[in-house]
Amino acid sequence: MSNSPGAVSPRELQITFPALDNTLGAMLIGTGMSSILAGVFVHQTFRYFRRYPKDHWSSKAAVTILCVLDIVHEALIIHTCYYYMVSHYFQPIILLSGVWSLRFVIPTTGIISMISHMFFARRVIILAGNKCLFVPVAAISALLILSELAFCAVATFAIFRDVTFQRFVDRSSWIISASLGTRVLTDSVISGAMVAMLRRNRTGFKRTDSILDLLISFAINTGLLMSVINLGAMISAVLQPDALIYCAIYIVSSKLYSNSVLAVWHRSSPSPVRLNSRQSRNKNRTEHPSTGTSWLEMSDHVAAAVKTSTNTGGIDLWDAVSNDDLIVTLDNLG
Questions:
Q1: Is 1.10.10 the CATH classification of the domain at 16-265?
Q2: Quick one: where's region Disordered (predicted)?
Protein backbone atom coordinates (compact mmCIF):
# COMPACT_ATOMS: atom_id res chain seq x y z
CA MET A 1 0.00 0.00 0.00
CA SER A 2 2.78 2.40 0.90
CA ASN A 3 4.59 1.55 -2.36
CA SER A 4 1.66 2.50 -4.63
CA PRO A 5 2.25 5.48 -6.97
CA GLY A 6 -0.42 7.68 -5.39
CA ALA A 7 0.62 7.15 -1.77
CA VAL A 8 2.08 10.02 0.29
CA SER A 9 4.44 9.24 3.14
CA PRO A 10 3.92 10.92 6.55
CA ARG A 11 7.25 12.70 6.13
CA GLU A 12 6.20 14.20 2.78
CA LEU A 13 2.83 15.16 4.22
CA GLN A 14 4.50 16.98 7.12
CA ILE A 15 6.69 18.92 4.69
CA THR A 16 3.90 19.99 2.34
CA PHE A 17 1.39 21.00 5.02
CA PRO A 18 2.14 24.51 6.39
CA ALA A 19 2.81 25.16 10.06
CA LEU A 20 -0.12 26.78 11.83
CA ASP A 21 1.39 27.71 15.18
CA ASN A 22 1.87 31.41 14.38
CA THR A 23 -1.22 31.74 12.16
CA LEU A 24 -4.33 29.81 13.12
CA GLY A 25 -2.75 28.78 16.41
CA ALA A 26 -2.33 32.41 17.39
CA MET A 27 -5.88 33.15 16.22
CA LEU A 28 -7.24 30.30 18.35
CA ILE A 29 -5.48 31.59 21.48
CA GLY A 30 -6.67 35.13 20.78
CA THR A 31 -10.23 33.90 20.25
CA GLY A 32 -10.20 32.06 23.56
CA MET A 33 -8.95 35.10 25.46
CA SER A 34 -11.40 37.42 23.72
CA SER A 35 -14.28 35.06 24.54
CA ILE A 36 -13.49 35.39 28.24
CA LEU A 37 -13.38 39.18 28.00
CA ALA A 38 -16.59 39.20 25.95
CA GLY A 39 -18.34 37.26 28.69
CA VAL A 40 -17.10 39.74 31.29
CA PHE A 41 -18.39 42.63 29.19
CA VAL A 42 -21.85 41.10 28.70
CA HIS A 43 -22.07 40.41 32.44
CA GLN A 44 -21.13 43.99 33.30
CA THR A 45 -23.63 45.29 30.74
CA PHE A 46 -26.40 43.27 32.40
CA ARG A 47 -25.44 44.61 35.82
CA TYR A 48 -25.26 48.15 34.47
CA PHE A 49 -28.88 48.10 33.27
CA ARG A 50 -30.02 46.55 36.55
CA ARG A 51 -28.18 48.94 38.84
CA TYR A 52 -28.53 52.20 36.91
CA PRO A 53 -32.03 52.29 35.37
CA LYS A 54 -32.19 56.10 35.66
CA ASP A 55 -29.22 56.86 33.45
CA HIS A 56 -29.82 59.12 30.47
CA TRP A 57 -30.99 57.43 27.27
CA SER A 58 -27.77 58.44 25.50
CA SER A 59 -25.68 56.56 28.05
CA LYS A 60 -27.87 53.48 27.71
CA ALA A 61 -27.67 53.73 23.92
CA ALA A 62 -23.87 53.94 24.02
CA VAL A 63 -23.64 50.86 26.25
CA THR A 64 -26.08 49.00 24.01
CA ILE A 65 -24.13 49.88 20.85
CA LEU A 66 -20.88 48.75 22.45
CA CYS A 67 -22.48 45.49 23.58
CA VAL A 68 -23.89 44.75 20.12
CA LEU A 69 -20.55 45.53 18.46
CA ASP A 70 -18.72 43.36 20.99
CA ILE A 71 -21.04 40.40 20.36
CA VAL A 72 -20.78 40.82 16.57
CA HIS A 73 -16.99 41.04 16.88
CA GLU A 74 -16.87 37.83 18.89
CA ALA A 75 -19.16 36.04 16.40
CA LEU A 76 -16.89 37.08 13.52
CA ILE A 77 -13.71 35.70 15.04
CA ILE A 78 -15.43 32.48 16.15
CA HIS A 79 -16.71 31.98 12.61
CA THR A 80 -13.19 32.61 11.29
CA CYS A 81 -11.72 29.88 13.49
CA TYR A 82 -14.54 27.46 12.64
CA TYR A 83 -14.17 28.13 8.92
CA TYR A 84 -10.47 27.36 8.79
CA MET A 85 -10.17 24.71 11.50
CA VAL A 86 -13.41 22.73 11.09
CA SER A 87 -15.24 23.40 7.83
CA HIS A 88 -12.05 23.37 5.74
CA TYR A 89 -9.83 21.21 7.90
CA PHE A 90 -6.78 19.82 6.09
CA GLN A 91 -7.27 22.08 3.06
CA PRO A 92 -4.09 24.20 2.87
CA ILE A 93 -5.24 26.02 -0.25
CA ILE A 94 -8.04 27.66 1.77
CA LEU A 95 -5.46 29.27 4.05
CA LEU A 96 -4.26 31.45 1.20
CA SER A 97 -7.42 33.57 1.12
CA GLY A 98 -9.28 35.44 3.84
CA VAL A 99 -12.83 34.50 4.75
CA TRP A 100 -15.45 37.29 4.84
CA SER A 101 -15.76 37.19 8.63
CA LEU A 102 -12.04 37.85 9.08
CA ARG A 103 -12.30 40.84 6.75
CA PHE A 104 -15.06 42.39 8.85
CA VAL A 105 -13.01 42.05 12.06
CA ILE A 106 -10.91 45.11 11.15
CA PRO A 107 -13.76 47.66 10.80
CA THR A 108 -15.59 46.27 13.84
CA THR A 109 -12.47 46.55 15.99
CA GLY A 110 -11.81 50.03 14.63
CA ILE A 111 -15.29 51.26 15.55
CA ILE A 112 -15.02 49.89 19.10
CA SER A 113 -11.61 51.52 19.51
CA MET A 114 -12.92 54.83 18.15
CA ILE A 115 -15.87 54.86 20.57
CA SER A 116 -13.54 54.13 23.48
CA HIS A 117 -11.12 56.90 22.54
CA MET A 118 -13.98 59.38 22.00
CA PHE A 119 -15.30 58.55 25.45
CA PHE A 120 -11.99 59.11 27.22
CA ALA A 121 -11.23 62.19 25.10
CA ARG A 122 -14.52 63.67 26.29
CA ARG A 123 -13.43 63.06 29.89
CA VAL A 124 -10.22 64.97 29.22
CA ILE A 125 -12.05 67.86 27.54
CA ILE A 126 -14.41 68.19 30.51
CA LEU A 127 -11.47 68.32 32.90
CA ALA A 128 -9.67 70.89 30.71
CA GLY A 129 -12.19 73.54 31.72
CA ASN A 130 -10.86 76.85 30.40
CA LYS A 131 -10.60 77.66 26.69
CA CYS A 132 -6.81 77.89 26.69
CA LEU A 133 -6.59 74.17 27.45
CA PHE A 134 -9.88 73.10 25.87
CA VAL A 135 -8.97 74.03 22.28
CA PRO A 136 -5.59 72.24 21.99
CA VAL A 137 -6.79 69.17 23.91
CA ALA A 138 -9.91 68.87 21.75
CA ALA A 139 -7.94 69.47 18.53
CA ILE A 140 -5.23 66.90 19.30
CA SER A 141 -7.77 64.30 20.45
CA ALA A 142 -9.93 64.80 17.35
CA LEU A 143 -6.90 64.62 15.04
CA LEU A 144 -5.67 61.35 16.54
CA ILE A 145 -9.12 59.74 16.53
CA LEU A 146 -9.77 60.79 12.91
CA SER A 147 -6.33 59.47 11.90
CA GLU A 148 -7.10 56.15 13.53
CA LEU A 149 -10.48 56.02 11.76
CA ALA A 150 -8.83 56.84 8.41
CA PHE A 151 -6.25 54.06 8.77
CA CYS A 152 -9.02 51.63 9.72
CA ALA A 153 -11.03 52.59 6.62
CA VAL A 154 -7.99 52.19 4.34
CA ALA A 155 -7.13 48.81 5.90
CA THR A 156 -10.72 47.64 5.42
CA PHE A 157 -10.64 48.64 1.76
CA ALA A 158 -7.27 46.93 1.26
CA ILE A 159 -8.28 43.64 2.84
CA PHE A 160 -11.40 43.45 0.66
CA ARG A 161 -9.41 44.41 -2.44
CA ASP A 162 -6.58 41.92 -1.93
CA VAL A 163 -7.92 38.40 -2.40
CA THR A 164 -5.03 36.51 -0.81
CA PHE A 165 -3.11 37.02 2.41
CA GLN A 166 0.19 37.20 0.56
CA ARG A 167 -1.02 40.00 -1.68
CA PHE A 168 -2.28 41.90 1.34
CA VAL A 169 1.06 41.46 3.11
CA ASP A 170 3.03 42.56 0.06
CA ARG A 171 0.91 45.62 -0.72
CA SER A 172 -0.82 46.77 2.45
CA SER A 173 0.82 45.40 5.61
CA TRP A 174 2.19 48.86 6.39
CA ILE A 175 -1.38 50.09 6.90
CA ILE A 176 -1.88 47.72 9.83
CA SER A 177 1.40 48.81 11.40
CA ALA A 178 0.53 52.49 10.95
CA SER A 179 -2.95 51.94 12.39
CA LEU A 180 -1.56 50.19 15.46
CA GLY A 181 1.06 52.91 15.88
CA THR A 182 -1.68 55.54 15.81
CA ARG A 183 -3.57 53.65 18.50
CA VAL A 184 -0.46 53.58 20.70
CA LEU A 185 -0.03 57.32 20.26
CA THR A 186 -3.73 58.00 20.92
CA ASP A 187 -3.74 55.92 24.11
CA SER A 188 -0.58 57.62 25.37
CA VAL A 189 -1.74 61.16 24.59
CA ILE A 190 -5.25 60.79 26.01
CA SER A 191 -4.03 59.03 29.17
CA GLY A 192 -1.24 61.57 29.66
CA ALA A 193 -3.63 64.48 29.16
CA MET A 194 -6.11 63.00 31.62
CA VAL A 195 -3.42 62.56 34.27
CA ALA A 196 -2.16 66.10 33.67
CA MET A 197 -5.66 67.59 33.97
CA LEU A 198 -6.41 65.64 37.13
CA ARG A 199 -3.13 66.72 38.74
CA ARG A 200 -3.83 70.30 37.69
CA ASN A 201 -7.16 70.19 39.54
CA ARG A 202 -5.62 69.13 42.86
CA THR A 203 -6.85 71.41 45.63
CA GLY A 204 -4.67 70.53 48.61
CA PHE A 205 -7.58 69.05 50.54
CA LYS A 206 -6.98 65.46 51.50
CA ARG A 207 -10.44 64.10 50.74
CA THR A 208 -10.67 65.80 47.36
CA ASP A 209 -7.14 64.84 46.35
CA SER A 210 -7.72 61.22 47.36
CA ILE A 211 -10.53 61.01 44.79
CA LEU A 212 -8.28 62.55 42.15
CA ASP A 213 -5.45 60.16 43.04
CA LEU A 214 -7.75 57.20 42.43
CA LEU A 215 -8.79 58.64 39.07
CA ILE A 216 -5.14 59.26 38.16
CA SER A 217 -4.23 55.67 39.05
CA PHE A 218 -7.08 54.34 36.93
CA ALA A 219 -6.05 56.51 33.95
CA ILE A 220 -2.40 55.45 34.18
CA ASN A 221 -3.17 51.75 34.49
CA THR A 222 -5.68 51.74 31.63
CA GLY A 223 -3.53 53.83 29.29
CA LEU A 224 -0.36 51.87 30.04
CA LEU A 225 -2.07 48.51 29.52
CA MET A 226 -3.57 49.48 26.17
CA SER A 227 -0.36 51.15 24.98
CA VAL A 228 1.73 48.06 25.79
CA ILE A 229 -0.73 45.71 24.09
CA ASN A 230 -1.01 47.81 20.94
CA LEU A 231 2.77 48.28 20.87
CA GLY A 232 3.20 44.52 21.00
CA ALA A 233 0.76 44.11 18.12
CA MET A 234 2.58 46.77 16.09
CA ILE A 235 5.98 45.12 16.64
CA SER A 236 4.52 41.74 15.63
CA ALA A 237 3.02 43.26 12.48
CA VAL A 238 6.36 44.80 11.51
CA LEU A 239 8.55 41.77 12.28
CA GLN A 240 6.16 39.01 11.15
CA PRO A 241 3.61 40.48 8.72
CA ASP A 242 2.89 37.05 7.22
CA ALA A 243 1.85 35.63 10.60
CA LEU A 244 -1.36 36.31 12.53
CA ILE A 245 0.15 37.04 15.93
CA TYR A 246 -0.63 40.73 15.56
CA CYS A 247 -4.20 39.82 14.58
CA ALA A 248 -4.66 37.79 17.77
CA ILE A 249 -3.44 40.71 19.89
CA TYR A 250 -5.60 43.06 17.82
CA ILE A 251 -8.84 41.22 18.57
CA VAL A 252 -8.02 40.95 22.29
CA SER A 253 -7.38 44.70 22.46
CA SER A 254 -10.90 45.32 21.17
CA LYS A 255 -12.35 43.55 24.20
CA LEU A 256 -10.10 45.51 26.53
CA TYR A 257 -11.29 48.78 25.00
CA SER A 258 -14.96 47.94 25.51
CA ASN A 259 -14.37 46.67 29.04
CA SER A 260 -12.35 49.77 29.99
CA VAL A 261 -15.21 52.03 28.91
CA LEU A 262 -17.80 50.06 30.85
CA ALA A 263 -15.51 49.99 33.88
CA VAL A 264 -16.00 53.74 34.14
CA TRP A 265 -19.76 53.44 33.80
CA HIS A 266 -20.18 50.60 36.21
CA ARG A 267 -18.11 49.75 39.27
CA SER A 268 -18.36 46.59 41.35
CA SER A 269 -18.70 48.13 44.81
CA PRO A 270 -22.20 47.74 46.31
CA SER A 271 -21.70 50.65 48.74
CA PRO A 272 -21.80 54.06 47.02
CA VAL A 273 -20.21 57.15 48.52
CA ARG A 274 -22.58 60.08 48.29
CA LEU A 275 -21.81 63.75 48.10
CA ASN A 276 -24.84 65.88 48.91
CA SER A 277 -25.98 68.18 51.71
CA ARG A 278 -24.16 68.94 54.94
CA GLN A 279 -26.70 66.87 56.87
CA SER A 280 -26.12 63.72 54.80
CA ARG A 281 -22.34 64.15 55.01
CA ASN A 282 -22.57 63.77 58.77
CA LYS A 283 -24.30 60.39 58.41
CA ASN A 284 -22.80 57.05 57.56
CA ARG A 285 -22.43 57.26 53.78
CA THR A 286 -22.36 53.51 53.26
CA GLU A 287 -25.94 53.22 54.57
CA HIS A 288 -27.48 55.25 51.74
CA PRO A 289 -29.14 53.30 48.93
CA SER A 290 -28.08 53.73 45.33
CA THR A 291 -29.90 56.41 43.36
CA GLY A 292 -29.96 54.35 40.18
CA THR A 293 -27.64 56.80 38.42
CA SER A 294 -24.16 55.73 37.43
CA TRP A 295 -20.92 57.52 38.25
CA LEU A 296 -20.58 58.61 34.63
CA GLU A 297 -23.89 60.49 34.76
CA MET A 298 -22.65 62.57 37.69
CA SER A 299 -18.96 62.81 36.86
CA ASP A 300 -19.52 66.11 35.06
CA HIS A 301 -20.69 67.55 38.38
CA VAL A 302 -17.56 66.24 40.06
CA ALA A 303 -15.40 67.91 37.41
CA ALA A 304 -17.36 71.14 37.81
CA ALA A 305 -16.94 71.02 41.57
CA VAL A 306 -13.21 70.42 41.24
CA LYS A 307 -12.89 73.39 38.89
CA THR A 308 -14.96 75.49 41.29
CA SER A 309 -12.66 74.59 44.16
CA THR A 310 -9.65 75.55 42.03
CA ASN A 311 -11.09 78.87 40.83
CA THR A 312 -12.32 79.96 44.28
CA GLY A 313 -8.92 79.61 45.87
CA GLY A 314 -9.21 76.32 47.68
CA ILE A 315 -12.72 75.17 48.58
CA ASP A 316 -12.95 71.52 49.46
CA LEU A 317 -14.84 69.42 46.93
CA TRP A 318 -17.05 68.05 49.65
CA ASP A 319 -18.05 71.60 50.60
CA ALA A 320 -18.35 72.80 46.99
CA VAL A 321 -21.03 70.19 46.27
CA SER A 322 -23.68 71.26 48.76
CA ASN A 323 -26.91 71.02 46.73
CA ASP A 324 -29.42 68.65 48.33
CA ASP A 325 -30.56 67.47 44.90
CA LEU A 326 -27.03 66.57 43.79
CA ILE A 327 -26.03 63.01 44.56
CA VAL A 328 -22.77 61.77 43.14
CA THR A 329 -22.10 58.06 43.21
CA LEU A 330 -18.47 57.00 43.24
CA ASP A 331 -18.43 53.24 43.36
CA ASN A 332 -15.06 51.95 44.57
CA LEU A 333 -12.88 53.98 42.21
CA GLY A 334 -9.87 52.13 43.52
A1: no
A2: 273-293
